[in-house]
TrEMBL record:
Organism encoding this protein: Streptomyces avermitilis
GO molecular function, one term: transaminase activity
Keyword Oxidoreductase belongs to the record: no
Keywords on record: Aminotransferase, Transferase
GO terms classed as biological process: carbohydrate metabolic process
Protein name: Aminotransferase
Amino acid sequence: MTDRHHLLVHGGTFAAVGDGGDISGVRGGGSGSPDGLFVRDARHLSRWQLTVDGAVPEALSPVRAGDTARCVLVPRGGRQEPPAYTFFREQAVTEGAFVESLRVTSNRPAPTTVRIAVTADADFTDQFELRSDHRTYSKAGAVRSRQVLDDGVEFSYQRGEWRSGTRVTSEPAPDGVEETGTGARRLVWTLDLEPHGSAELSLRVAARPHGAAHPAEVPASPADASARLLALEGEFLGGVPFPTGWPELAAACARGLSDLAALQVPATGPDGEELRVPAAGAPWFLTLLGRDALLTSLFALPYRPQLAAATLPALAATQATEVGVGSVAQPGKIVHEVRHGELAHFGQVPFGRYYGSVDATPLFLVLLGAYVEQTGDVALARRLEPNARAAVGWMLDHGGLTSRGYLVYRADGGGLANQNWKDSPGAICSADGSRATGAVTAAGAQGYAYDALRRTAQLARTVWGDEVYAALLEQAAGDLRDRFQRDFWMPEQGFPALALDGEGRQVDALASDAGHLLWSGLLDKEYGEMVGRRLLEPDFFSGWGVRTLAADQAAYHPLSYHRGSVWPHDNALITLGLARYGLHDEARTVAHALVDAATAAGHRLPEVLAGYGRDTHAEPVPYPHACVRESRSAAAPLALLTAVGGA
């Protein structure tokens, strides 16, 4: 979000409010990011504006970041006329609900009367409509309605079989609910205050999204909502061995675990069981994204294996079983993105279940193997054996390992142009910035495939009792390793290519993806050590982490999403890879840089940082459109702890 909005997150629900706690109903684009209360990809509160005696108060103490939004407001005035009232506003969210406590205190020595109004509306706009690409979507037959209640108002929306609603209630009940001429409704109270007396309003908003399994349980107050989230955070923090000799890393781990607690969203397992899995990030990706949930679970595995224990069956339940043209589905493929909104429901965007990812499927196998190795829980490996074999089948068949020798993808005209982790349109490029064409073979995905084959072979041998299958997968992994080092290695640069294009030509940008190959173990020792040291040279290493592209290339841009920025999760994988190849000094250098970046931002790592060097700017520069909270970044300090300990 922009600086003008403050984010409250709990599960699949988030609210973006202004400095004074208001929601203005902006749609995003040039005026900034949209605000509102969002549940399951829809905006369930699009107006929430406080007025006092007909005027908007000003923020004496604006909202600050935290699990509860608190601010202090006063009527506008000047030195000669001190404000008659002070308003203490607190807001919080839980799953499907928003609560506010509004306390007004008179500053006058005589009895007084104040008229308070809250203008509320719910436009039920799909998140995809609010993005900055300015696309419009037809909604034939859609109807919005409002119903006045004894203690508030209810907003409803219907389009065919799609139904959703938002109920706004208060204690005490409003004296009236007024029409505004815009579809919004104004709840009004006339309060009589004693000299220096106070009164309090308790406002509750319950969202009823389409398809929700249960109605929202609205907490009694923001304090109650905060207590629920604090209890959940306590569960995530308990028992983690924070490093005592490196308090900054300990603080980053604690902050990350607290964020992961808030970012758990509902999902369903293969047998209909209810699960909680890590969402990708807030605000735009508060949903299950395969790659993000898998990497988050891998980073947290030594400390919070329950994330993997939920993510694996949730992804197994959404694994493709047939070909789907619009969704890019193929049998055995692991889902990239799951959406619950209206546009996905009616097929107006392809992301209801979208499979445009070349790397989620091998990462599913990597996590399954790592989970069994970490926990010894062979029961899950037995339960998911059909899913694992189907995932291997996809890699060998539709994925391209058998026919092309590598995992490949083609640009999806209705979805993503690039389907590896660097999925922006120009991310897979040559050093001069020209884009790869044809079927793309991204380097990092080959490392994941290699690790997936090896780990699944181990499961086949030790859990499934299938020695023949294990030998087949080990042979496939060895052949992939040999091919990769032959086709990708660039002797002049002493570095692997970022990708191969549709003609098999090397896409020669020097990119951070090479560090993922260290994590996967795909490179032999000599090449791996060469790559690891190269990533720490000044054109790659900014002082805050390794850039996605080395800065001495024409394609580099410090404010590009994937062509020069610094990603914490990317650097976490690099750090794990450096440690794997015995480059412990280099691993500590990257880890300290990331921890310093987190310390400069209240111990929280953002989704992505700009690529500007620490030598020219003493503070990390934010990337302008980053997710405020992102699960892979939240889990990245845990990966650093695994890689370097408390050093």
